[in-house]
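Because discrete structure vocabularies remain unfamiliar, we reproduce here a specimen of the format, pairing a chain with its fold in token form:
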Amino acid sequence: MAKNLQDTTTLHNGVKMPWFGLGVFKVEEGPELENAVKTAIKHGYRSIDTAAIYGNEEGVGRGIGEGLKEAGISREELFVTSKVWNADLGYESTLAAYEASLKKLNLEYLDLYLIHWPVEGKFKEAWRALETLYKEGQVKAIGVSNFHIHHLKELMKDAEIKPMVDQVEHHPRLTQKELQDFCKEQGIQFEAWSPLMQGQLLDNPVLKEIADKHHKSIAQVILRWDLQNGVVTIPKSTKEHRIVENASVFDFELTKEEMDLIDGLNQNHRVGPDPDNFDF
């Protein structure tokens, strides 16, 4: 169980990944983005998650460069994730996409590279490219995003290397327990995107009662629930007070009853596309 912001989970290949990070989905290039990344690093975050399709890798790279310098820490102390987009899911095109992401981020390697969506008929070739990057030591860990159980099974039929991470939509209205359990059995780290359901849970009465009891915000309760469930989480924010507040989840613990109450909010409700019906 994570005890502080720098605590890590060990992926099945031995690489250590922070339990908690900053997501930058839908944050546009510019000073706000760069400051958010710098601010997160300043306040102890050691994981930054972006993607090619977000169109903000250059700004993230600038924020990382300045943030590391200002915090006086080395690149090796930061865990950086990006993702290959659907249009690039071929073998050669995935290799080229990785190089393009590195260049934009102004980095020599990524800590984690993910296939963003399970495009049928394409993700296996992309995975072969990720395996090549991994075997050549160009990336520390490889994984997938938005993969259901059947996608994972299909991928692992031919894969030489099992995915180290599956990053999916996960929040109290979409707990994905079966997928969590499958990932746990397979030694694949389960990671949440949109952990706060894009703000749609911040007036939920069940969560409010739990939050009031602990003198915490609803967001903090949800993020704590993630951590106690063994889920890596990457909430997005560009405001300094929110970046600090989101990470202030290591000084309280939810009871089993509270965890069960939050689990009980599940409605299998998505705010993002269903990977089986996503119009690629």
